[in-house]
């Protein structure tokens, strides 16, 4: 559904994107993560036909964003990371305005708009001015606007940015429903653990380059060579930490009030042997397990931070 080949964007000597390659199948929810200034919004703006690439090709549903921008716009719903100024419009007027922009007849809009407001949980705000909505409500209204013409693809740039926890949960539930409807969705976000619950695949971009791409579980598996073991013992915790420092497959040991955290380079067999050794040393082990690697761990492991150069 989305196909990007050797995409680059330069501003003089500054490279915002460097030879990006990306394929997102139809019906996939793709999470786009990276530090501020890494190139996420630039890539999304090119896909939304708002910016021309310096080189390379980007296609949406088979249409080149440069050669066939009108066809691409029919197929996408783009939600930028800012809402815009529409304070003097009511929510229904706002949606009518955008529906008319897509040449949707008023009789059809009259049926469609209540359905969209119900989808984004704003039915009770149909006659409220946009200025009277909370930030979370504005984000949901903006999402409804993106859906007015029933696009195949949704491009959502930081849809949960600045939202409180309840508003983020509401946004996440709406996105899950859209996923069930078969929409292809590309989302950029810094709320990494929540993004992991929604996406099928992620792409990590840094300095304008794609540094990792694939299913979350696959990328996590790649990092298991740097696993962290969490050990809790009844007593003598500091002594255990000191003894573990000398083990061959241990690269680092941290002791805190939750237990001993061991950076371990061995496999499952070596992990069992380490537990047996700890017990043979006379320590009463309360728990011994491998810490789960979440999406935030993946992000921090892969990236160093900083914008493109």
Brief description of this entry?
The protein is elongated, with a radius of gyration of 24 Å. It is built from eleven helices and 14 strands.
Give a verbal description of the structure.
Helix content is 36%, strand content 28%. With 309 residues, it is of the alpha/beta class. It folds into 2 domains: 2-221, Rossmann fold (3-Layer(aba) Sandwich), CATH 3.40.50.300; 235-283, no CATH class. The protein has a 6-stranded mixed β-sheet, sandwiched between helices. Strand 9 and strand 10 (209-215) form a beta hairpin. Helix 3 packs across helix 4 (106-119). The longest helix is centred in the middle third of the chain and has 16 residues, at 165-180. The model has no long low-confidence stretch (mean pLDDT 87).
Low-confidence stretches: none
Q: How would you sum up the major sheet?
A: 6 strands, mixed
The total of beta strands comes to: 14
Going by CATH, the homologous superfamily of the largest domain would be P-loop containing nucleotide triphosphate hydrolases
Number of domains: 2
- Please indicate the percent range of residues in DSSP E strands (runs of 2 or more): 25-35%
What is the CATH architecture assignment of the largest domain? Answer: 3-Layer(aba) Sandwich
| The top level CATH class name of the largest domain | Alpha Beta
| Helix content, binned percent | 25-40%
By CATH, the topology of the largest domain is: Rossmann fold
